[in-house]
Amino acid sequence: MTTDKKITVKTIISRKLTGEKITALTAYDYTMASILDDSGIDIILVGDSAGNVIAGYDTTHPVSMDEMIYHTRCVRKGVKRALLVVDMPFLSFQCGIDEAIYNAGLFLKAGAEAVKLEGGEEIFDIVKNLNDFGIPVMGHLGLLPQSVHKLGGYAIQANDEKNGKKLLEDAKYLEKAGAFSIILEKIPEIRAREITEKISIPTIGIGAGRYCDGQILVLYDLLGLTENFNPRYLRKYADFAGEMRKAFKNFIEDVKNGNYPSEKEVYK
To answer: Which pTM does this prediction carry?
Structure first.
């Protein structure tokens, strides 16, 4: 049930007990963030997917701290109700605990209320220290875009018993380190269900099936703006690319034909 009450980390944690599904979408600018927030979304993630859908990078690796801080400040202006989480970009936390704390602190100063880190057991100490310093952490397991070269692409992950067991262990490490939730990306539904049932913190799926405690999508994918991106899990709720082309072509035609501006659209 959507309310006007401010969503906090404690709100998200409580959903595990109440059973109310968590909704999350990405945003990168003020306008989209304000519309999302007004629509009643629970979590707005300033994703490093901005590197793909905004900057046109092939991977998220080139995304910098400065770029993410800029997007965070833009989104913060539009958010009043939702919990604002920010991706920590590649090399902003992998180089050590001190640097991770410093960079996460910069995001909080820019308006974030939590940060998201990719990885499992290997980032246990980083997640624990961030949590100890009062910086809430969302985990991210399964397909890790920042590890795409190691993974050999964007294929489904943990599709055998060995890797499924490792995924569950990693989820438990993140839980023990103090993460308040975990995104599970592109894994078999049976793995996501097992993790969701065996940890006490919420899971949020993207291509992880029906049994997670919530779901997240990239905003531009949901709106149909990324026309050539059509993974099995993606449901496109609109065709904004088509509608935008129609609007642009109508504008071009009206200008060339002298139909815009009309008499009522000029100042006297």
So the answer is: 0.96
